[in-house]
Design goal:
The protein has helices at residues 30-35, 37-43, 78-90, 109-116, 173-188, 223-226, 232-242, 244-247, 263-267, 300-317, 332-337, 344-355, 385-396, 401-411, 448-451, 458-471, 475-480, and strands at 11-14, 47-50, 54-55, 67-71, 94-99, 128-130, 138-139, 147-149, 155-158, 193-196, 220-221, 250-254, 275-277, 321-322, 360-364, 482-485, 492-498, 503-509, 515-518, 524-529, 535-537, 540-543, 548-553. By secondary structure, it is of the alpha/beta class. Helix 12 packs parallel to helix 16 (458-471). The two termini are 29 Å apart. It binds 1-deoxynojirimycin (NOJ). 1-deoxynojirimycin (NOJ) is lined by residues 60, 63, 100, 161, 197-198, 254, 327-328. 1-deoxynojirimycin binds next to loops.
């Protein structure tokens, strides 16, 4: 693969609402991010992905945009954003924004005009169908029918996500052109690119036919008929050629539903995007093709297989975007480490395992502190619209209220949206007033102040790890090297990273026992470990519980 500037990035994802409140209203904001740029610089990250800050009624916390060209007042204004871009640049930190172009908010001017006048050109910017009942049985991602009735008209509009997020009609050429103009307008402002939301949803099955139901509600997941549908490539190519390509920017697409065989089209040399997120191992606790409440057990061997299958498939064609957390996922420590979530050794091994994979590492705010899921006692304590739907739908499917609450506690998107704990004071230094969403229980212990400068803390570990990839002696291998899985113990994930000249062998012990693994040569050097001292004797490496160790040939 040809070298690209963005392969060297380490990206930090900010959920603005929960990062830092600078104006005392309990909600994080852009000035709050500016205040913390030194923290981010010291951590060593090189790029920030800022979740949506555009004008929005905030029904889905900004993924429902009512004006693409304005900033949501809760977060600040356009000058604040320009200041952030500029100040970050002074520190050599690039900014990417979220691009949400599958849908808008129902409060967007285009949708309002479409509602007001059926014969206006804006009516065709969205997907409306005439009739006295829902045109088909498709279920939206957040629950209920994808169709919402237009009041006082025998007409429905389509929304693959929430009711207040009507899907745009990508079949309309003028609409597409207006989106491209908007994308270019933002790129002109000097951002480095975009994380692109739900982009595989832009093409629908135009037959609009009902499908066999997959739940007791008689509906069927809309993803089967509205995600990565034939013909989507025409739109994606057009998007790329009219926007991204002109700026050589970086794009990372949320593109669920893309089979590995199609990766070439998405991330190959002439692909639509620089990278896409692969959710296969992030969703390893969910029964395939199912909902969050249908959970399955899994073991390290399966995690290993999924991670490696993803790496090898991506390596064949392009470049990966590696993550263990984001604003839609529960905290990684709780999800992947289960009973060992609070064990720093395990948190570090999990971090190192994904961080040194081939691709750009993404770190989600709070991950670098080892934050964990919360435990809420009532569904009334949840903010996330999809968790509320999941709760009631699992009850409808026959689970008890207690089981339903357990599902959402484990999987709710609110888990990663709790306020960022800067210190152990009231509201964790995030805000001076009650935050918009409850803090995690552990914030007096798990916070930046407690971990800064503290030997062996998770935060200091992340700082070292980032330095090791970016500036250490094996930088060339960690950034550009290929990856190959290695056989090992069933509780150990092992891979090698290599260039033509050199190879680093990496083992990650995911058990609470000592494990001895065979190493490929008798003469090797131990170059790095996540804690303690691994023992290397001839061709045997003894790993301590939850320890990772890296070797090179002498
Ligand atoms: C994916 C985003 O990550 C999520 O937060 C959002 O709710 C949906 N897309 C809809 O925009």
């Amino acid at each position: 693969m040809k070298k690209q500037w963005w392969q060297e990035e380490v990206i930090y994802q900010i959920y603005p609402k929960s990062f830092n409140d600078s104006n005392g209203d309990g909600i994080g904001d852009i000035q709050g991010i500016i205040e913390k740029l030194d923290y981010l610089k010291d951590l060593g990250v090189t790029m920030l992905w800022i979740c949506p800050i555009y004008k929005s009624p905030m029904d889905d916390n900004g993924y429902d945009i009512s004006d693409y060209y304005a900033i949501e007042a809760q977060f600040g204004n356009m000058e604040d954003l320009e200041e952030l871009i500029e100040k970050a640049k002074e520190k050599n930190i690039k900014i990417i924004l979220d691009l949400v172009i599958n849908h808008t908010s129902d409060e967007h001017e285009w949708f309002q005009k479409a509602l007001a006048d059926k014969s206006s050109k804006y009516h065709d910017y969205y997907i409306f169908k005439e009739g006295v009942k829902e045109p088909n049985n498709w279920r939206s991602v957040f629950g209920g029918s994808v169709w919402e009735k237009v009041s006082e008209r025998n007409e429905y509009y389509l929304h693959c996500f929430g009711k207040k997020q009507p899907d745009l009609n990508w079949e309309n050429k003028e609409l597409r052109k207006r989106l491209y103009d908007m994308v270019n307008w933002w790129l002109e402002k000097g951002i480095a690119g975009f994380r692109i939301d739900a982009i595989t949803f832009i093409k629908k099955d135009l037959s609009w036919e009902s499908q066999a139901p997959d739940g007791v509600d008689g509906l069927v997941k809309c993803t089967k008929v509205s995600r990565n549908q034939p013909g989507i490539g025409i739109f994606l190519n057009e998007l790329k050629e009219n926007t991204f390509n002109k700026y050589q920017c970086m794009t990372v697409a949320e593109a669920p539903g893309v089979p590995y065989e199609e990766l070439d089209e998405f991330i190959g040399d002439n692909g639509y995007f620089s990278m896409i997120f692969d959710f296969r191992y992030a969703d390893l606790d969910i029964a395939s093709g199912s909902e969050w409440f249908k959970r399955i057990d899994w073991n390290i061997k399966e995690l290993n297989e999924k991670v490696m299958a993803s790496q090898l498939a991506i390596q064949k064609y392009g470049w990966g975007a590696n993550f263990i957390e984001n604003h839609d996922q529960p905290r990684a420590a709780t999800k992947y480490l289960r009973n060992h979530a609070a064990d720093d050794r395990a948190v570090k091994t999990l971090a190192a395992m994904y961080f040194f994979l081939r691709g750009v590492p993404f770190i989600y705010q709070g991950q670098e502190l080892g934050m964990m899921n919360f435990k809420r006692d009532s569904i009334d304590e949840f903010d996330d619209l999809s968790s509320i739907d999941q709760y009631y739908r699992s009850i409808q499917e026959g689970y008890s209220a207690e089981e339903a609450l357990n599902f959402v506690n484990l999987r709710s998107r609110d888990n990663s949206r709790t306020p960022f704990p800067w210190n152990g004071e009231k509201y964790g230094g995030f805000s001076e007033v009650v935050p918009w969403i409850k803090m995690t229980e552990e914030y007096p212990e798990i916070n930046v102040e407690k971990q800064t400068g503290k030997k062996n803390s998770i935060l200091e570990f992340y700082r070292d790890m980032i330095w090791f990839r970016q500036k250490g002696p094996y930088r060339e291998i960690f950034i550009y090297g290929k990856i190959e899985p290695m056989e090992s113990d069933e509780n150990v994930i092992a891979y090698k990273r290599y260039t033509e000249k050199e190879c680093v062998y990496c083992w990650f012990n995911f058990s609470d026992c000592n494990i001895e693994v065979s190493v490929p040569e008798e003469t090797m050097n131990l170059i790095w470990q996540t804690y303690g001292k691994a023992e290397l004797k001839k061709d045997k490496l003894k790993l301590l519980p939850f320890q990772s160790a890296f070797l090179v040939s002498k």
